[in-house]
Write a structure and sequence with these properties.
Blueprint lengths: L14 E6 L13 H18 L4 H7 L2 E11 L8 E11 L4 E10 L4 E13 L11 H9 L6
Length: 151
C-alpha cells in the first residue's frame, strides 16, 4: 500500500485479506460482479476464523457451524480487473448463546475508496442436523475474544 492511501477503516484493528481482482470476477458490465463481493466476504470470514483457531476441521469435530442468517451489502463503488483491494472484517457482536455478527469493509488503496460495506449475522447450528444449537465454549472463547465494540 502506498503511504498516501492508508485505509480509513470504519473500526480499529481489522483482520484483513489482500485481493487481486481477476478476470473471472468481472461481469458483463466490465466491473466486479456483485456476487463476487459476497465471495470475498466469505473468504475474509473463513480466513479470520482460521486465524482465531477455528477451521472447518474444528467445526466438524464440534458438530457446529456458523451459518449465515442475514447478509447486508452496500455497494459503494465498482472494482475492476487487475486492481489490488483489501477486505477487512471485525466481529462486532457475539451473544455467547446462538449468534454473532461481522462487519466488512472493502478498500482500494490506489485511490482510497471504500467499495463495499457489509454486515453478516450468523447463527450457530449443528452440522449433523442443521438445527440451531448453542455456541460451544471454543466458539465463545475465540469469537468473543475478538469482539470489537462498534462506535
Amino acid at each position: 500500500m502506498s503511504a498516501c492511501s492508508q485505509p480509513n477503516w470504519d473500526l480499529p484493528n481489522p483482520f484483513v485479506i489482500d485481493i487481486l481482482v481477476t478476470a473471472d470476477a468481472i461481469d458483463h458490465y466490465g466491473h466486479v460482479n456483485n456476487a463476487q463481493y459476497l465471495r470475498w466476504v466469505e473468504q475474509a470470514s473463513w480466513a479470520h476464523s482460521a486465524q482465531l483457531g477455528l477451521t472447518l476441521d474444528h467445526y466438524r469435530a464440534l458438530d457446529r457451524a456458523m451459518a449465515v442468517h442475514r447478509h447486508e451489502l452496500d455497494y459503494l463503488a465498482p472494482g475492476f480487473e487487475g486492481e489490488k483491494l483489501v477486505m477487512a472484517t471485525w466481529i462486532v457482536a457475539c451473544d455467547a448463546r446462538l449468534t454473532l455478527t461481522r462487519r466488512f469493509q472493502l478498500f482500494r488503496p490506489d485511490d482510497g475508496a471504500t467499495l463495499l460495506r457489509a454486515r453478516t449475522r450468523y447463527a450457530c447450528i449443528a452440522l449433523s442436523s442443521g438445527r440451531p444449537r448453542r455456541l460451544p465454549p471454543e466458539f465463545v472463547s475465540a469469537y468473543g475474544g475478538a469482539l470489537m465494540a462498534e462506535a
